[in-house]
Design goal:
single chain, about 280 residues, alpha+beta, Cyclophilin, ten-stranded antiparallel β-sheet, two-stranded antiparallel sheet, 4 helices, 12 strands, about 25% helix
């Protein structure tokens, strides 16, 4: 064997010895690698589950037919259940309101205005805080008065919470939505009548609430307990009568303002609900 062959043989033995000396991957290292893979998988799964909950929803609630939100963009958190909601307290002389209606009666046809045209009516509204009496002017607002009379006869507002009170800029108590949410209507709508061109609504005025659509009058109405100036854009708000008794009840409720972060506009601190409405024609 030549010296060159001996050197080559020695080199091969040396290389084989080095391979044997290199330690294989340890169990601890292998465990770390496996744990890393599992952790990565878990993070990916968690991202798939969590991200949809963090992203905001694009869903929006559609208002009910005849929803009234203009003179009243109502605060969330009315009192649809019996008893007092959080932050509410009974005013002196008031009783605990009943639960609001979950499925109020709905009507497809606007009442005939001829039934009220040229006539005057007295409406007695029994509430959990006492009687409030209206004089309804069928001469100036025949369609509105005809609708009010029809809904009263149908028992539409029995019961019905007054869901909104305002005490800054405008001074109103808004009622007439049996659901107490500010979004309910009787199923039909009609246009504006007898709206003051200057936007002046004296204390004791009885007028219709509506959306920005001038043809969205329905079942919701409001009472001004102080002189108020309301927007005239869109045609204003239909005055169809006045309070002849019980304005002090409205003033008492308004004095306690609204619950929540905006006490000048929202659900009354002191709840008041309509229990029944009866209407009779005033004879000359």
């Amino acid at each position: 064997m030549t010296k060159e062959q001996e050197r080559a043989r020695a080199r091969r033995r040396h290389e084989e010895a080095e391979k044997k000396q290199k330690a294989p991957v340890s169990e601890s290292t292998r465990d770390k690698q496996v744990f890393g893979v599992i952790l990565a998988i878990l993070l990916i799964v968690a991202a798939v589950i969590v991200v949809p909950k963090v992203l905001p929803s694009n869903d929006t609630a559609e208002p009910a037919a005849g929803a009234q939100t203009s003179i009243a963009t109502p605060e969330a958190g009315s009192t649809p259940s019996a008893g007092l909601a959080s932050g509410q307290k009974l005013a002196a002389g008031c009783t605990t309101p009943p639960a609001a209606q979950t499925s109020p009666k709905q009507f497809s046809k606007v009442p005939d205005k001829a039934t009220a045209a040229g006539k005057t009516f007295t409406a007695t509204v029994k509430t959990t805080c006492g009687d409030i009496v209206f004089e309804l002017d069928g001469a100036k607002a025949p369609q509105t008065v005809a609708s009010f009379i029809s809904l009263a006869k149908e028992g539409y507002w029995a019961p019905s919470p007054c869901h909104r009170v305002t005490s800054e800029g405008i001074f109103v108590l808004q009622c007439g939505d049996p659901t107490g949410t500010g979004q309910g209507g009787p199923g039909y709508t009609f246009g504006i009548e007898n709206a003051p061109k200057d936007g002046s609504y004296p204390a004791g005025s009885l007028a219709m609430a509506r959306t920005q659509d001038p043809n969205s009058n329905g079942g919701q109405f409001f009472i001004t307990y102080k002189d108020s100036k309301l927007p005239t854009e869109g045609g204003g708000y239909s005055i169809f009568g006045k309070v002849t008794k019980g304005l002090d009840i409205v003033t008492k409720i308004a004095a306690n303002k609204a619950v929540g972060a905006s006490p000048s506009d929202g659900t009354p601190v002191s709840p008041i609900s309509i229990l029944s409405v009866s209407v009779t024609e005033k004879k000359a």
